[in-house]
Design goal:
With 658 residues, the chain is α+β, with helices and mostly antiparallel strands. Helices cover 32% and strands 24% of the residues.
Length: 658
Amino acid sequence: MSPRARIILGGLAAVYMLVVFRAFHIQILGVQGIRERGARQYGVKIPLVPKRGAILDRTGNELAVSVATKSIFVQPAKLKSAEAAAAILSRRISRPAPDLRKQLASKKGFLWVKRQMPSSAAEEIVKEIREAQGTGKGRGEEDGIGVVEEPKRFYPNRELASSLLGFTDLDSAGIEGVELSLDKYLRGERAFLMCERDARGRVIVPSTTPVEVNSQGNSVWLTIDRNVQHVAESELREAVARYSARGGVALVMQPKTGEILAMASLPTYNPNTPSGAVPEARKNHALTDTYEPGSTFKVFTMSSALETGSVKTSEKVFCENGSYRYAGRVIHDVHGKGWLTVPEVLKYSSNIGASKVSERMEPERFYDMIRAFGFGTKTGIELVGEVGGILPPKSGFKGIRRATVSFGQGISVTPLQMVSAMSAVVNGGKVMKPYIVREIRDPEGKVVYRGEPQELRRVLSPKTSEQMREMMGLVVQENGTGTQARIKGFLVGGKTGTAQKVEVGTGRYSPNKMVSSFVGFLPLQDPELMILVVIDEPKGQVYGGVVAAPAFNQIAVKTAYYLGISPTEPVAQAVASGERAPKKAGGIALTRVSTSPGESSMVMPDLRGLSMGRVVDVMGRYSVKLNLVGTGVVRLQAPAPGQLLVPGTACTVTFGGR
């Protein structure tokens, strides 16, 4: 064989080997890649709503859950009678027939018609359309209509804690509140409806409508107690209605730990239908809005002066009989006073006294103390949307500006900042970071995050804190500004606040728009509850001691007995006299017994069939220790209905299914 022939033969052999290698590569080594390319070309993934984790209160009560629903889809090209389908859908889902006819005339291969409907209703609609088209039971790819299961967010308590919880959109993404703030934990991995394309590129939905599901989201346990939240919202709503106010905020915190037990905000809305809510109702005013605190801020002026050694509790301050010219301005008191001790300045809420106390501190030192309490910065709570309030610049903190800030004007704070800072005043001087998340659990129940008390810094000594508790206790005593906050069986402390609002646009104080507030705690010497009530623009009465203090009173007494906080004042034990009172309409005969004026006992009411929130409301009027067991409605109670209740009685209420 000639050399030339060998070369040609070798070349042909090489080409043959390349062809064989390529065929081997395609048919053996590359088959997986070809299949994947084919799947991408002919397969279609239609995204479905992921299943979010539940939101629960501290005791495991559900606040937000995902429930199973059905979504209706159509394949317009496969509908035998788009006109008939549009007519049925218009009647059943309340949409205009012309809009549906236009949608069903689309050339798209897949369309959602109605998502997240009750399962039975969706299946009935599809069945009716199939029968109208003569396809009987049919299959999704044959008759052009079908259903697929999708989860929908549901809030079983409706408006309860709505401004805190927030809501989700149709695709289950968090929009407001906890739903938005903890969206990365709550949202599950998205599921997909697996479909195919035909030769013309049209989507084909298999009859089995396979769904590719990954996993559901984590569950979030809040520090909120549903029953305390119910009490806070109920009393806040009553106060807002009584004074025809624009809105309000109520906060309940454990001052030693920073745990939030209730965060109520009005106006409110139903998160199951958020589209009908005005933007103002969807805001969590406890952390998105600021207000001038008024006289409640005098607590921080006094505590700062005591801590820096600028004054002593035994010293007296001349309050100018109600009118004091300072730095070219005149400071007024509602009730003119002469000489007052430092505790009396707080008790009688003297603006002049507070400004004179602030004069004894170096401006820079006073300013630093205000910052140390947390004003002017965000608290760091887990919720998005928090603002830091408004604090004057340090360079301008002197003269009349320092004087007005001393009694709560010229500074703006959030309700959350106020309750957090006030907790530091009474808990021994520690600024605790407020938190709302108790723990986060994965779908298997494993704890992946746990909220813990976190001390940010110490701002007061234990001695100053004790002095402030005593001084705030005087506020609710006789002749103080907060007498309506007093609670039978408990020594409490607090401070009233009444502040003018600044008119938007003018920057001037409004003569008739006020913010009334009361912040208080109990028990006096060992605080376990810190409660703030803020009422926005009340009509008629405007003073915090009249408008907000009564709401504090009811929230405090009901929460204290619900949580089993022991009374700190001795209450005379009643002895039955055997005298019967008339039977109330629809109720049980009550036996009232008394050994002294103002001290009386009642019989145990019939609680059977009541919800837990209603039980807390009813039993909050009695000085008893309340133990609640289970969920649902009342099934058992001890003592039994009609038995005598004396202060301190231990009452156990057992709940079960409805």
